[in-house]
Each structure stands twice: as C-alpha cells, then as structure tokens.
Model the fold of this input.
Amino acid sequence: MKSLLIKNGTVVSGAGMTESDILLRDGKIVEISDRGKIEDPEASLAEVYDAQGKWVLPGLVEPHMHIAAPLGGIIDIMDFKTASKVAAYGGVTSFMDFSSTLPGMSIRAAVRERLKEMSEGKQDYSCHAKVVSLVSPMTAAKLAMANAELFDAKRKREALIAERASSEKIDKINAECTRLSEHAEQMAFLAQAEIDARMDEIPKLVREDKIPTFKLFMTYRKAHVMIDDTDMLKVMKKITEAGGRVGFHAESNPIAEFNDELFAKEGRLSPKGFSEAKPNVCEAEAVNRVLTFAEMIKAKIYFFHITTKESVDLIRKAKARGVDVIAETCTHYLTLNEDRYEDPDSGRLFMMSPPLRSQADSEALWEGILDGTISIVSSDNCTFTIKQKTTSNDYRKIISGTSGLGERLGLLLGEGVAKGRISLPQLVKVACENPAKIFGTYPKKGCLQPGSDADITVIDPKLSHELTCENLHYPESLTYSIYKDFYSQGWPVLVLRRGECLLSDGQFHEEASKGEFLSRIL
Done:
C-alpha cells in the first residue's frame, strides 16, 4: 500500500482553513487531523511531504472547456494530451468537455467519441452532452420544401375555384394537392422520427451512461446548432424528468442576427462592432426567456459563461422565487473589459462569445460570486493561434475563443484572493467544491475528506508568476497571452490525482497513468 503524509500545511476547504495533516493511501484520503495528530497506525511508514508555509487545496475541477473542438471549420491547437499538461500546471485534476454533436447525429455516439478522445489525458474526465437542432439540415430542408409546395398548390386550387375553372382543372389540382399532402406528411414523419430518436437518448445518457448534464445553444441558427424554443422546452422537460440538468449558451439569436445584418450595411465589422452587435440585452433576453420556461415547467437549469449585470440580477431574483437555476462565469469576464476591442488588430485576440463587457459588469460578477448567485468560475478554454484569429477583418469570420485552462487558478489567486475580492475558501468553492457538487462527482472530487479521491493541489503563496506563454506550458504554436499583464500570487508546486503525482517542483510527470471516466449522478 502506497502512503503519503502531507504535513504542516494550511488545508483549505470551502468552509475555512485549518492547520492540518493529511494521510493518503492507495489513491484515497485516509485521515485528516490537526498537525502531528494523525492516528493511523501505519502513518509512520508513509512517505512525507512537508507543506510548511503552503496551502493545501482540493484538486481543481474544470467543468467547461473545449479541446480539439471543430468550431466554424477551425479546430483549436490542443489535444487532450497537451491539454492535460496545461491543466496540471493550473492545478486541475478533473475536467469536463462537451460532445461534438452535429445536427441529426446520435447524441450518445457523439458522447462516446468525445470520451474516447478524453481518455488520452491524465485528468479524470467526463463530458456534457451537447444537444443541437433535433432535425438534420437535409430533412428540415426537405420538410420545408414539401410544405411550401403544398401551400403553393392549395393557393392555385383556391384561385381556380374562385375563377370557376373547369372540373377537369379542379380534379387535376386536387390530385396534385393530395400527392403533395402525402409527401409533406411523409417528410413530417421522418422529421418527427429524428426528433424522437434524439429525445429517447436523453434518459439513457443520464441513467445508463452517467452523463446527466447537457448543453443547448440559443444562437448560431445559421450553423444549425441552435435549437428552437419549442424543441428547447421539450428537451428541458425530458432532461429534468430523467434526473439531469440542462445548460445553456444564452444569447438571443434574433438580436445577434439583426445586428450582424445591420452592422454589415453600416460597415461596423471590426472587433468593436462584434461587442456592440451582442450588447448586454442580447444575453439578458435569452437568460430571461430560459428562466421563464424553467419556472413554468419546473426544469433544472444551468447557465454557462454569464457576463452581464442584468443577467446576474435576473438569476438572483429567480433563485429567490425558487427557480432551480445555477450559473457560472469565466475568468476572462472577471478580469478583462470591452475596451480591449478598441484596437482593430489586437482586439481580434480577445474575441470570445459572449464578448467582454464593462467594468461595471465585471464588478457585478464578483458580487454574484460573493452572494452565491454565481456558483462556478470556469475557463471556457478554446485556444487558437494568432494566425487562426487573424484570418479576417470581419468579426463574423473571426473565430471566437481564448485560452484559460492554465490561467484560471492564477487569475483567481492574483485578481481574486490577493486583491481581496474573494477569500481562499471562496476560491475553493467556485473552482473545486461547487463544480464537483453541481456536476455529480462530490465527494469523490472537489473536497478533502476521508474516503475522497486523493486529488490535491499544493500552492506556494510566495511564488508569483506572470501569466505569459512561457509560464503556461501551452503548445509552442501559441505565441501570445491575453493575460500577459496579469500575475498569479501563488503557484502550484505539487498536484496529485488519486494520489499519483502529475506535477512536482515545476515538472509535469509524463509517466503518470491516464485519467479515469467520472461516472456522474446528480
């Protein structure tokens, strides 16, 4: 039995900080006691790690990232092997990505494909099931054409009847209407069969595959990713009944598309135009719509990457009314503002969806963390090179996404804890404990308790690192950092996943075993 005694450290949980020792054995936490008071009879045989002057945290849980994800025909620069290294340097021991579901594709098949890819990393892993348009683009187009042809034939029939056409002409158009009606019914049947097939997968994903969390998009209609409101209600109800939770990319597609067309006419297609095309109301309208739906059908919902003060207020009020809603924000929305879009060249590097907001919005997000309106801070990592981000001057053609997997802990330490915006226990809540609880891996993950996995991140608070490419260990093709002006006050010096060392003294352990699938139940 392999044992490790971490002694003399300051152990941090969501509840507070204690001067404690932790005994690990066979990948589990065996005992936590006051310093020098471990009672386990075999503790004397354990290897010792002296954490004097250091903070001992649960391993971070990253619940929102995108690795090797095809977005707009462009794939980001990392696979799960390289992402695993970046994550380890960021103190992450468990992570969750998303299935790359395409319209008309089996959701379960997409999940299986993503989990196979994720198994190459060192972190324990799971993914959220992405639900897109329930009908394939081809079937939807054929159904629309069938209905249009039937509508046109009925109008011709009405015109012939009105002009008292011959019985021969009337009989001919009636036969045509019958034929087109049968064809439209057949296409409607095929479309409904695709919808039923996708809906039938939901309870199986939750109960059999142990994938209980989903993501729906309220925008990107032209990419056939958006789900319409009627189907969205059906999916929300189905997921909730199955025991899952449904998450949302909440941006109003009508507002975004309207502004895209308007700004194109006005020549406002720079990165600044991107921000203005998706104003605060673009998010707030979508958030309010989902909250209204959820309250009506008693759905359990989650918002990814909340960015605005209006959304925080809507969610806060909905929680007070008893709506089962959980929200996250991301490190970039807490630390960066929309003024980054002023420069038409560098502004492209800061493009992500939703866009960056005002300082007042950032302050509202920090306040939301303090009062519990926002439960999680994620990275929403999706890393692209300068070349990938600068292919066009038209914001509609610039890929959205930024790094964050390696910076998340450093930003929370430097901009959160060091500047007094949050406490160290609050950092543990939003980066470790709450993600594990909300996504169904607690107390296996996200906490330091006897019986929990020995996922531990030890931080030296005296180490300060500039968040540059050189310090973050992304692939060499990433030659810029949008956080290059930021510093982490504190840095991981030891990262253990199930007791196995992923990182020690600044070195990533390539020889560590692969991560394990996280079976999740809400």
Q: What stands out?
A: The longest strand covers residues 3-13. The mean pLDDT is 96. The radius of gyration is 26 Å. The CA atoms of residues 72 and 399 lie 7 Å apart.
